[in-house]
Amino acid sequence: MRIRKLLIIIVALLAAYGILVAVAELPPYGMADNPVHNHVSERYINKALDETGVTNMVTAIVLDYRAYDTMFETIVLFTAALAVVITLKVSKRKEKG
Questions:
Q1: Where are the domains of the chain?
Q2: What is the pLDDT along the chain (97 residues), one digit of tens a residue?
Q3: Distance between CA 6 and CA 33 in Å, rounded?
């Protein structure tokens, strides 16, 4: 029992250390010269009208650049809602008899 508690503490400390190392490697929040995200936003802002033909930039991003992502998010949301409805119907049937 004592060895198990010691093992749990060691695993928790290793996990905390791993999280701290990962956070230390992140760039500062809001850093303007962070190259990871700048090229995407610049392309969306500068070329959205030319590439998509849509005047609303948000619509261009959601429906043209991120269409598959939006579609799969909608499928996940629909599946979750359907699972809730099915669960509630099954629960009501069990209560009635």
A1: 67-97
A2: 899 999 999 999 999 999 999 998 887 776 666 666 667 778 888 888 888 888 888 888 888 888 888 889 999 999 999 999 998 887 666 666 5
A3: 44
pTM over 0.85: no
Structural tokens at position 27: 């760039």
Two structure tokens written together for 88: 């509630």
Question: What are the two backbone dihedrals, phi and then psi, of residue 62, each rounded to the nearest 5 degrees?
Answer: -70, -45
Q: How many residues are recorded in the chain? A: 97
CB 52 within 8 A of CB 64: yes
Which residues are CB-neighbours of 27 under 8 A, at least 6 positions away?
34, 36
